[in-house]
Amino acid sequence: MSLAPYACHPAASRGRLHAEGDVPRGPRDAFQRDRDRIIHSIAFRRLRHKTQVFVAPDDDHVRVRLTHSLEVAQIGRAIARALGLNEDLTEALCLAHDIGHAPFGHAGEDALDAAMRGVGGFDHNAHTLRILTRLETPYPRFAGLNLSWEVLEGLAKHNGPVADPPWALAEVDDAFPLALDSMPSLEAQVAALADDIAYDNHDIDDGLRARLFTRDEILAVPFVAESWQTVRQRFAEIDPSRLIGELVRDQIGRMVNGLLDETRRRVADVTSVAEVRAAGRPLVAMPEGMLAGQQALKQFLHDHMYFHPAVLALGEDAAETVSALYAAYRDDPLRLPPEWRYTGSDPVAAGRRIGDFIAGMTDRFARRAAASLLGHDAGASIEG
After folding, report:
1. Nearest 5°: phi and psi at 280?
2. What are the backbone angles phi and psi of residue 141, rounded to the nearest 5°?
3. In the chain, how many domains are there?
């Protein structure tokens, strides 16, 4: 398939920080190699035991960050293909977008940010860049995965230009400037909205499975009710309890089609990647009429799922675990594994090293570490 003129082409990549020469690595272009490096990374494997919404879910059917990332990549590739964008770059961005998350979801991130406040704080998106450029060490001559500029740039600013980068992102940008003041590629914009489409809809499935809200409650959201009516008409003879999956699929399809229509309208006169970066506004977008419905769905999930008392209670226990672990390692660095101990004299670097270690923990590893060091447990999980 030929690429659209506004798509990123691997032959026109701005390259990698470290020159690698002409080592043969099979019939892959630059962005295909980037995607494969992400998939083969240790940080990507850890996502299978990192929370999406629930803390260390015991229900094997509930999504975690790995399954979420795969679902985002599927949606992202479909959109990229329809728009003539680079599918491999889009997939790489989708697969890597959650790699920087701390254990225990947003509760863990907030706790780690608070614990690290004196050393610059913690931001999961900036930490994604830190992992990919510094902490992963599979290559003998340099740290990081040495990904192409387009992947790093897309991860750094998939939500738009970054005026005040967190310290971790600023360090990456200093070493390999990522043009943080310009708009990201269309592939990065697709990855950002594929993420929204995936979690907005799949959280309906997980929330119902966990009994955090009822079918009648979610159907009170007009946007969802419209899809439900279409699904019920299509499968009038089927028991409604079997139609939740079809509801989710229908809504994803509606959102993807709406995004494609609006994006095609916005890029109709765009003829280059340079024009995309200079546009000053997102070119991949939902139509205005659909945004209101999507926002109402987000508000429902915020109120009935993310801030459900049971989820908040588990989040509080998880936050205590992260805070206690950071304090324990700060007070006695010898509790860290030898390879994670900071040997210099800079207290900021020492604190950030502890943050690196905790951020890399999976939910279950953090719980085991807390039980071993502190006799502390992050609590039971929500089961469907």
Report:
1. 75, 5
2. -105, -10
3. 1
- CA-to-CA distance for 358 and 366, rounded, in angstroms? 8
Structure tokens at 357: 């270690």
What span, in angstroms and rounded, lies between the C-alpha atoms of 275 and 283?
10
Q: Is residue 298 part of a domain?
A: yes
Q: Which residues contact 82 (CB under 8 A, 6 or more apart)?
A: 260
Q: Token pair 């003879």 is at which residue?
A: 237
pLDDT of the residue at 380:
45
- Gap between the Cα atoms of 18 and 165, Å rounded: 23
Domain that holds residue 209: 202-308
At 60 the pLDDT is 65
CB contact at 8 A, 359 and 47: no
Nearest to 277 by CA among 191, 195, 181: 181
Contact predicate 72/196, CB 8 Å: no
User: What's the rounded Cα separation, in Å, for the pair 66 and 114?
Assistant: 26
3-state DSSP call for residue 169?
helix
Which residues are paired to 16 by β-bridges?
A: 148
Segments of the chain scoring below 70 in pLDDT: 1, 22-24, 53-61, 376-384
| Dist. CA 342–CA 333, nearest whole Å | 8
The pTM (predicted TM-score) of the whole model is: 0.94
Identity of residue 282: P
Residue 75 domain-assigned? no
Q: Cβ distance 382 to 57 under 8 Å?
A: yes
Residues whose CB falls within 8 Å of the CB of residue 254, separated by 6 or more in sequence, listed in order: 227, 290
Alpha-helical runs (H) found in 210-243: 215-218, 222-234
